[in-house]
Amino acid sequence: MTGSAAPREPASAHAGSGTREGLDVSNGRRVVVTAGAGGIGLAIARAFALDGDRVHICDINEAALTGITTADPAITANVWTSR
């Protein structure tokens, strides 16, 4: 490998107060989560919402997104779909 770039520090070296598993979780941000109707995307959306962030979720499954925002009061999200 060529170049003069210095080696990176491990991600954990950057984690400080206000972080969870290397992610900044400062309250009050606006967060956009794509593929938010299920799986990892939904878990991420819920984690940010529970930490006090305003979460906007996007997915191609409009019915699933509507169900999530209706059933989960922790997520007050705007629902966008791609068509």
UniProtKB/TrEMBL annotation:
Q: Which InterPro entries match?
A: NAD(P)-bd_dom_sf, SDR_fam
What is the superkingdom listed in this entry's lineage?
Bacteria
Write out the ranges of the annotated region (Disordered). Answer: 1-24
* Pfam families hit by this protein: adh_short
Q: What is this protein identified as?
A: SDR family NAD(P)-dependent oxidoreductase
Organism equals: Cellulomonas fimi
